[in-house]
Amino acid sequence: MKTDRGSFSSTAYDSEKGRPTAMPRKPREMSRTEKLDPFGRLRSPRAARELALCTLYSAMSKDVDPLKVFDERLNQRIGRDFNREILEFYNHSPVDVGNNETEEEEEKAAAQIREQEVEADVEGTVLLAPLPLVYSRFALRLARSLVKATSERWAQQEEIIKPLFPRKWRNEPEMAWIPLVVLQIAVTEIETTETSQKVIINEAIDLTRRFCDGAAPRIVHGILARYTEIRQNFPGAGDALWLETLLQGHQEVPSSVMFRLVKSHLEPF
């Protein structure tokens, strides 16, 4: 269990308004050595998080055990050739098409869309390939540990995460499946690893940007910012029973702090 609770950057979260003041930096391109191991396989923690996300999402949509899904893919029979050079072109970050208001911008957007189509083909090939051909041993170990820990903590954490959802997500929960999985992984990392909260939150936002459109990255950012603020102010905030007790008013905390925490908890983006 992580003992150093750290803090969330004051430039990223406005505790008075209860919302982020600015989104974190845009994801940068990784160098080849950051991205690939000496055998040309994906090696980064981001690759592991992405694999964990895909595994948990697949298990959630099929209502099956996530570890079973992971292990079946890990032990998948390698029955076809896989050109590992394709991994050099595998992009962990989405292409930003922009507003496209001028003719020049429209041409640029069209080129970016074509680039996205190529990347989609690469992505499909990579995500369907046998795991040992695509991921390093480190990435596989990290991904499996995230899948295991997240699935074990899922029900407890869902009690904390879902009340922070915007009304649209609460009314149509299928719209929030991917953000929910991203949030579950992020909260699991915050609670069970020594990784910096800032790194975890930025990675969660990058994952959301990659797989979701619209306001989802901003909402994920806001939910994690609120979660880390509650956690920083009150040890034990990762416990759903603690939060329920707090919201029922049985925890002795200053009324001003109680009001702010309850307000931020019950008024999602």
Number of strands: 0
- Tell me the Rg in angstroms: 20 Å
Question: By helix and strand content, what is the structural category?
Answer: mainly alpha
Low-confidence stretches: 1-27, 246-259, 265-269
Sheet bearing the most strands, described? none
Q: What is the fold named in CATH at topology level of the domain at 52-61 and 136-266?
A: N-utilizing Substance Protein B Homolog, Chain A
Helices and strands, in order, run as HHHHHHHHHHHH
Oligomeric state of the chains present here? single chain
- What percentage of amino acids are in beta strands? under 5%
Number of helices: 12
Estimate the helix proportion, in percent: 55-70%
Mean pLDDT, to the nearest integer, reads: 75
CATH architecture of the domain at 52-61 and 136-266: Orthogonal Bundle
Shape, please?
Answer: globular
Distance between the amino and carboxyl termini: 29 Å
CATH class of the domain at 52-61 and 136-266: Mainly Alpha
Region (Disordered): 1-38
Organism: Riccia sorocarpa
Pfam families: NusB
InterPro entries: NusB-like_sf, NusB_fam, NusB_RsmB_TIM44
